[in-house]
Amino acid sequence: MRFAFLLLLILGVIGILLATQDANLTNEVRLALPFTDADWTGPVLWMIGGWFGAGLLLGYLVALPGRVGASMRARKIEKQLGTTEVKKDKAVSALNTSAPISASRTTPPATEADEMQRLADEVARRTESVQATPPPKV
């Protein structure tokens, strides 16, 4: 998607520059860099195209460290994925060879009412010992 957008942008700029080609080739642009003796003179078409190309190159160079870092992280994760697959296979084989779960360990899923009752029973059990021993008299 980004490539298509960039291609359309480039084609649009080229189309505009070529549509006004007479004016762009006959008009000269003088570019003087500050603090240097560099002085360039050229047609508008070449100057705009050159600066556009320089901007694309700089944008690519700025994005390059992020792309290199992402590829290094991807390679590291791919290596970890291989070890994870081996561990998963070992765990699955261990589960397949282990004893089946007994019927007493399987319980039906608790409903909200069951959970509320369990919590109420737990609170009642814990508060019985507290109520049985009154605080000391001073």
Can you describe what's shown?
A hairpin with a 6-residue loop joins strand 1 and strand 2. 72% of the residues lie in helices and 7% in strands. The model has no long low-confidence stretch (mean pLDDT 81). With 138 residues, the chain is mainly alpha-helical. The protein is elongated, with a radius of gyration of 37 Å. The chain is built from 4 helices and 2 strands, in the order H-H-E-E-H-H.
Structural class based on helices, strands and sheet pairing: mainly alpha
* Regions with little confidence, pLDDT below 50 for 5+ residues: none
Number of strands: 2
Distance between the termini: 81 Å
Average residue-wise pLDDT: 81
Taken in chain order, the helices and strands follow as HHEEHH
Shape descriptor reads: elongated
Please tally the helical runs, counting DSSP H or I stretches of 4 or more residues: 4
Beta percentage is 5-15%
Q: Biggest sheet, in brief?
A: 2 strands, antiparallel
Q: Within the largest sheet, what's the order of strands?
A: 1-2
Query: Taking Cα atoms only, what radius of gyration do you get, to the nearest Å?
Result: 37 Å
Helix content: over 70%
